[in-house]
Amino acid sequence: MEAAIQSRSSVNILHNALIVTMDSQSRVFQNGAVAFRGDTIIAVGQSADILEELSSFSPQVTDLQGQFLLPGFINTHVHTSQQLGRGIADDVDLLTWLHCRIWPYESNMTEEDSYISALLCGIELIHSGVTCFAEAGGQHVSGMARAVEVLGIRACLTESIIDSGEGLPAAWASRTTEECIQSQKDLYKKHHNTAGGCIKVWFGIRQIMNATDDLLLKTRDTAKELETGIHMHVAEIPYENQHVVATREVDHGTVTHLKNIDFLQKNLLAVHTVWVNKDEVDFLSDAGVKVSHCPAAAMRMLGFAPIKEMLNAGICVSLGTDGAPSNNRMSIVDEMYLASLINKGREVFTKGTTDPTALPAETILRMATINGAKSVLWDKEIGSLEVGKKADMIVINGSSWSMMPIHDCISSLVYSMRTENIVSLMCNGHWIMKDRKILTVDEPGVMAAAKHASSELLRRAGIHIPSRMTVM
């Protein structure tokens, strides 16, 4: 048992659980317990040892009856402000998706829309076991921050930043580089470390086709000065690399150019990174760049990223869902399942042979937990169940038709678990969901508000989704 106790007050113990710690030793306790005081874990180990050691503290004891106890999942790429747009851009190419659907949608959002959208997205994230997410970049960060505080989970919030490009909505086309940087500085000052330290504000670059080099360099320098992260879509589609070669005079594409201007840094979270070559994988690795892999969105519009090669190169790769218009499911559980399968299948296309050992279950689970924490620069506090870390935990009921029988607990969590198996969630020492009921928001009320807000938003944006069937 590990224990670190500083006071005799408010000790809680979750015991009789199958604890998957995700610590550096990959320890699993068959009949384990986690004790926490306030928001901090003070002991991890065998139930009998912890119950005996802490009995004099009159702890509040919860019997988990053999269920799984894991660190909360971390979604490293999600557009919370796009949740009201679920289904508005299905089955279209990326540039049509962006210019004709998403940009009109986002540019017509109000702060209240962003708040409602983030609440709706947060509900789905919580039900899928997510205790922390990295916002991919949207409008009205203050609305997002209000939603995160209400929900009670963690977030790295990012504004969608664009200072150039074709086809931009009028409101965005007029923003200067300096305005883009100042806006983010103001948001950092207003929201960073709020909500009891659960909200961080990062800097954002939407994509290189909408960013001048001046914006890139000022973003790099300002984020370094404020000691925060940078969130950026990188090398999503072949056209992006073609555009960079044509406009930046480099021999390959986005990652090569970012290396040339010294933009690749340890605080950069590069999302998708599908169209990269071997040299660029090495560039990312050498710079300590983190990568967010979004398998569902990649299969839908982008392609197959060289994730196995990135992991072999020592790159920290985590998992994201992307936004609702590019992946209608905001379930990190689904992404774990997909990530393993598509990266095994990718071997057939790249090498002409199968490799069932590619991205094994334990690697996938690390991507959803401790690698996620490293990707959002929060691994000193979250991502694993260890003494001194925050009490961010999820309870998983494996006694269902979808998971039984369980022969290998790690494999079952990755290949058999479904969102419905996640029954309770705690963040910062507070129960956010118990027995599949979220305690912090009125779910039916949020859904009713979202239905009304989404209809009004699409009307303002002039977006009409044609029916593919004959409606009678």
Task: Give a description of the structure.
This protein folds into two domains: 9-69 and 383-436, Urease, subunit C, domain 1 (Roll), CATH 2.30.40; 71-374, Metal-dependent hydrolases (TIM Barrel, Alpha-Beta Barrel). 39% of the residues lie in helices and 20% in strands. It has helices at 47-53, 94-107, 111-127, 141-151, 170-173, 177-191, 213-226, 238-248, 254-260, 278-287, 295-302, 307-312, 332-351, 361-368, 370-375, 409-416, 443-461, and strands spanning 2-3, 11-20, 28-37, 40-46, 60-63, 68-71, 73-78, 130-135, 154-157, 199-201, 203-205, 230-234, 268-272, 290-293, 317-319, 393-396, 422-427, 430-434, 437-438. The strands form three sheets. Strands 1, 2, 3, 4, 5, 6, 16, 17, 18 and 19 form a ten-stranded mixed sheet that branches. Strands 11-12-13-14-15 form a five-stranded parallel sheet. Strand 8 (130-135), helix 4 and strand 9 form a beta-alpha-beta unit. Helix 13 crosses helix 14 (361-368) and helix 14 packs across helix 16 (409-416). The longest helix has 20 residues, at 332-351. The mean pLDDT is 94.
Brief sketch in words of this structure:
The chain is α/β, with parallel strands linked by helices and 472 residues long.
> What is the averaged pLDDT score?
94
Q: Which architecture of the largest domain would the CATH scheme give at its second level?
A: Alpha-Beta Barrel
Q: Sheet with the most strands?
A: 10 strands, mixed
The radius of gyration over CA amounts to 22 Å
The share of residues in extended strands comes to 15-25%
What is the count of DSSP helices, taking H or I runs of 4+ residues? 17
CATH domain class of the largest domain: Alpha Beta
- Stretches with pLDDT under 50, minimum 5 residues: none
Organism: Cuscuta australis
Protein name: Amidohydrolase-related domain-containing protein
Keywords: Hydrolase
InterPro entries: Amidohydro-rel, Metal-dep_hydrolase_composite, Metal_Hydrolase, MTA/SAH_deaminase
